[in-house]
UniProtKB/TrEMBL annotation:
Membrane spanning stretches: 12-36
Any one GO MF annotation of this record: flavin adenine dinucleotide binding
Name of this chain's protein: Glucose-methanol-choline oxidoreductase N-terminal domain-containing protein
First and last residue of the signal peptide: none
Keyword Repeat recorded: no
Cofactor: FAD
Organism: Drosophila erecta (Fruit fly)
Length: 699
């Protein structure tokens, strides 16, 4: 056990960079014991990072997140198909297994660490007016960083997709794929026609609840909303949250879909592999190969049948544009050869929420970090798979409500509530404010006075935003982070709808059932909103624009649509328009955002996308492998299964600054014409490669 403790200390330091005083004890002890019991309780071992790659696979899947892990699993079910899954990050660690420690993973080395561009309409309470946008850079992707909430969306979402010209995407068709992946272990949902049993993804309630969540559900009934399964026949209502957890621990898509197939002989996984572009033959417009950097070498691996982009709504459009697929003017601006003029990176949508709405209580019923005994909490989690460490990132209750802007007759609510038995103040400023990127002045004036006091929150979030953002390239360097313009509240009605949602949230908190706890709103105004009357519409809108929070649901940047839709990037079978052998299967393809947390819908998209591929290649006679037409032009180096090797110089420093040494190492690459060094000091640039740019010769 002592050795395990020492090992986990290293894990935490390598993951989070530092071990902070006071807070380190819980995750340290917890992770140590979790590691100690790991092999005894989990029947699947971790996937292997394949070092000896084939020069060619039938399918190459880029990204192992909520979609990519599912696609790789389902395609490798066909034994004659060789499947390669490429992931930019490492494997999960013991910390990521613990549901309540989700916040510790954000801003860690498992997170891409994206930020939105500065805004004058939103994120005004965040540092430099920029919202943090966590995205998983780890096996399992954002299903490792998220709060594990299992929400499918609304029937009308998918019927709307179909009405836009996407046959087969209506609710009656996609319900099958939701159920296919699901293993719902909530007894009250047994024999329910809307839920599945025996799938690979475990879904259940957290085994631990605070008394506040029962009051939250009861308050909903007092307002006229039913206590219902929001993933069932109707959505409007209140419920205790369901999540993707198994035996009290996170059930990521890596755990659910990749660990069971680690021994398949036709499946390879390459971790710590940063994809730089898809190689497309200009003459045939076929995706031929994938190029990526791993351990200082550039690999070029061919795809006999297809390349599937499942890198998420940020990285997928970035990779497409780097490969010559995107808006013509934008690509030409960065000197990228345009292979197909497509609206890649447009149509971006996200669920934006109003954070910081805090209610104080007089009884010790909330989660206050300093109250919990680390030893007792740890052993309760490890030995009994229960206790506060099993909470879904702290979120206990969900609700879907109608504002005056929605049509109640359609059962298509426009606001979702996340209820948590804690708020920004509950950890004394140790982690939550950092994850949010909250300005220190805002925290000190509003939340520091109630630090470590019992409190709870309701976060209203906008389900169907009218505003649209975008993802664009910062440069042609594949290691430079893209420009993310969330464009929150560009349509003023979005802010007004959230204001109405906040009013309903306050009515919920004022329900009679909360009187037993002495619940009341913390009435300290935000410093930049003091000019407005507290709780007036103008004040609430100022609050909405100040503590604007992403709910981590970016989507729509490679829109699915029929050929006549000028905004469409992929067709209803998820094939990229104008390019053969290339599909997008992830949140990018959503024409409009689903009404609720997006992890379950993305898994559904992956299940359906994999079936579309199987239908095409196993039953459609037009899909035939043309071996010679799909070969990469560059010859394979003698004695190697890697095409186009480039070895980066090794250094103890994360910065590579020796220009001559770098150029000599890149001189053997037939597809890289020269190296341009950049002096950019942008904090959004990966430090490993912030000082050089690869310029590729034509394929």
């Amino acid at each position: 056990m002592v050795l395990n403790l020492l090992f986990i200390t290293t894990v935490i330091k390598s993951t989070f960079g530092v071990v902070t005083t006071g807070l380190w004890l819980i995750p340290l002890m917890l992770a140590a014991i979790t590691y100690y019991r790991y092999d005894a309780v989990d029947p699947e071992s971790r996937p292997l990072d394949q070092l000896n790659l084939y020069p060619e696979y039938d399918f190459i899947v880029v990204g192992s997140g909520s979609a990519g892990a599912v696609v790789a699993n389902r395609l490798s079910e066909v034994r004659k198909w060789k499947v390669l899954l490429i992931e930019a990050g490492p494997d999960e660690n013991e910390i990521s297994d613990v549901p309540s420690l989700a916040a510790y993973l954000q801003l860690s080395k498992l997170d891409w660490g994206y930020k939105t561009e500065p805004s004058t309409k939103a994120c005004l309470g965040m540092q430099n007016n920029r919202c943090n946008w966590p995205r998983g850079r780890v096996l399992g992707g954002s299903s490792v960083l998220n709060y594990m909430l299992y929400v499918r969306g609304n029937r009308n979402d998918y019927d709307h997709w179909a009405s836009l010209g996407n046959p087969g995407w209506d609710y009656d068709h996609v319900l099958h794929y939701f159920k296919k992946s699901e293993d719902n272990r909530n007894p009250y949902l047994a024999n329910n026609k809307y839920h599945g049993r025996g799938g690979l993804l475990t879904v259940q309630e957290s085994p631990w609840h605070s008394p506040l969540v029962a009051a939250f559900v009861e308050a909903g009934t007092q307002l006229g909303y039913d206590n219902r399964d929001i993933n069932g026949a109707k959505q409007a209502g209140f419920m205790i949250a369901q999540g993707t957890i198994r035996r009290g621990s996170r059930c990521s898509t890596a755990k659910a879909f990749l660990r069971p197939i680690r021994s398949r002989k036709n499946f390879h996984l390459s971790m710590n592999s940063h994809v730089t572009r898809i190689i497309i033959e200009p003459g045939t417009m076929r995706a031929q190969a994938v190029e990526f950097v791993k351990h200082g070498k550039v690999y070029r691996i061919a795809a006999r049948r297809e390349v599937i982009l499942s890198a998420g709504a940020i990285n997928t459009p970035q990779l497409m544009m780097l490969s010559g697929l995107g808006p013509r003017k934008h690509l030409e601006k960065h000197g990228i050869r345009v292979l197909q003029d497509l609206p890649v990176g447009e149509n971006m949508q996200d669920h934006v929420g109003m954070g910081g709405l805090t209610f104080l209580v007089d009884k010790p019923v909330a989660i206050v970090q300093d109250r919990f005994n680390p030893t007792a909490v740890t052993f309760q989690y490890v030995l009994r798979e229960r206790g506060p460490m099993t909470t879904l990132g702290g979120v206990e209750g969900l609700a879907f409500v109608h504002t005056p802007y929605s049509n109640r007759s359609l059962d298509w609510p426009d606001i979702q509530f996340h209820m948590a038995p804690a708020s920004i103040n509950s950890d004394n400023g140790a982690r939550v404010k950092k994850v949010l990127g909250l300005k220190e002045s805002v925290y000190q004036e509003v939340y520091h006075p109630i630090a470590n006091k019992d409190s709870w929150t309701i976060m209203p979030l906008l389900l169907r935003p009218r505003s649209r953002g975008s993802v664009k390239l910062r440069s042609a360097n594949p290691f430079h982070y893209p420009l993310i313009n969330a464009n929150y509240f560009d349509d003023p009605l979005d802010a007004k709808t959230l204001v109405e949602g906040a009013k309903i949230a306050i009515r919920v908190a004022e329900a009679q059932v909360f009187k037993q706890f002495g619940s009341r709103l913390w009435r300290k105004p935000l410093p930049n909103c003091k000019q407005h009357k507290f709780l007036s519409d103008a004040y609430l809108e100022c609050h909405v624009r100040t503590i604007s929070m992403t709910i981590y649901h970016p989507c729509g940047t490679a829109k699915m649509g029929p050929a006549w839709d000028p905004e469409a990037v992929v067709d209803p079978r998820l094939r990229v328009y104008g390019v053969r052998g290339l599909r997008v299967i992830d949140a990018s393809i959503m024409p409009t955002i689903s009404s609720g947390n997006t992890n379950a819908p993305v898994i559904m998209i992956a299940e359906k996308g994999a079936d579309l591929i199987k239908e095409d290649w196993l039953t459609n006679p037009e899909y035939k492998v043309k071996r010679q037409a799909n070969r990469v032009r560059d010859p394979e180096p003698a004695g190697s299964n890697i095409q186009g090797i480039v070895t980066l110089p090794r250094s103890n420093s994360s910065n590579i600054s020796d220009r001559s040494n770098m150029e000599s190492h890149f001189s053997n690459s037939s597809h890289i014409s020269n190296i341009n060094f950049s002096s950019s000091n942008s904090s959004n640039i990966d430090s490993i490669s912030s000082n050089f740019t690869l310029n590729y010769a034509d394929s």
